[in-house]
Amino acid sequence: MAKILIVDDAEFLRMRISKMLTAEGYEIVEADNGAKAVELYNQVHPDVVMMDITMPEMDGLTALKHIKALDPKAKVIMLTALGQESVVLEAIKSGARDFVVKPFERERVLGAISKLLA
After folding, report:
1. Is residue 57 included in any domain, yes or no?
2. Against a cut of 0.85, is the pTM above it?
């Protein structure tokens, strides 16, 4: 099954997504900031990355650019709060393939991943 890297500084959110995806058979790797995400991406080469935009150390937008520089074919879904539309546009221009607005629905998350893995 596919390997998913979940990147968010909120542990409860990583746990919630991880539980949801593990139940669907996905293998999960977690990072709590963008710097760790870039490092982990390089080590484990996940099939999909789900990444928050606002995080300490390195934000999701900067991490996205680093990951796309490492692997132009990287499949990244940005997790965003309402009101971050301009940042989402920047993320899409920088190579993000999709975005999910928090609080998210299970079907939306699973649909976004399925679409990228198809």
Report:
1. yes
2. yes
